[in-house]
TrEMBL record:
Keywords per UniProt: Cell membrane, Ion transport, Manganese, Membrane, Transmembrane, Transmembrane helix, Transport
Protein family per UniProt: Belongs to the MntP (TC 9.B.29) family.
Entry annotated with the keyword Methyltransferase: no
TM regions (residue ranges): 12-30, 42-66, 72-93, 105-127, 133-154, 161-182
Protein name per its UniProtKB record: Putative manganese efflux pump MntP
Major site of localization recorded for this protein: membrane
Function: Probably functions as a manganese efflux pump.
Record bears the keyword Cell membrane: yes
Length: 183
């Protein structure tokens, strides 16, 4: 592996963790509902799958857009990551309480889509930057699944001490990678 490849892999790992932080913070609150361990396993797997599907769609669209706009692709991708990260940080300061749907059936689908929407946008910007899609998707899915499990289990124990701080950390990491792409 070259230094560039190692750097790209480290960036993807940190980006995967940043994307999974949203699922982690929401799972902390959801975990306070005393969800059974079997349900926790299913929720984590579904969240992980959606963190693969949503950025995959984004990457495909990003590659199409990249071929159309060429040199502006990296600029657009960087701005998109900064925007997503800033929105994540600002939403962490929104003090409205979130209403959670039941994590079964359609409620689980809604929950999975809501926490993976940001990964669609990140996938769009990654598609513009010609990143290795399979590695990125697997990292996004694995990180979000593990962070969801961690959040649900910690939520049962901690009762919400880290929720806002994890969103701020995740948003800051996305902003940092966006700025890195821009400069």
């Amino acid at each position: 592996m070259t230094a560039y490849q190692i750097g790209e892999m480290v960036s993807l790992i940190f980006m995967a963790i940043a994307l999974g932080m949203d699922a982690f913070s929401v799972s902390l609150g959801l975990g306070m509902r005393e969800i059974r361990l079997k349900r926790i396993a299913v929720i984590g797997i579904v969240i992980g799958l959606f963190h693969i599907i949503m950025p995959f769609i984004g990457i495909l669209l990003g590659q199409v857009i990249s071929q159309q706009i060429g040199q502006y692709a990296v600029l657009a991708g960087g701005l998109l990551l900064v925007g997503i990260g800033a929105q994540t940080v600002f939403s962490a300061f929104n003090h409205e309480t979130r209403r959670f749907v039941q994590p079964v059936g359609a409620g689980l689908f809604i929950f999975a889509v809501s926490v993976s929407l940001d990964s669609f946008s990140v996938g769009l910007s990654l598609g513009m930057s010609q990143v290795k899609a399979v590695i990125a998707l697997l990292l996004f899915g694995a990180a979000s699944m593990i962070l969801t499990w961690t959040g649900l289990i910690l939520g049962r124990k901690v009762h919400g001490l880290l929720g806002v701080y994890s969103e701020i950390l995740g948003g800051s990491i996305l902003c940092g990678f966006g700025l890195n792409m821009l400069f």
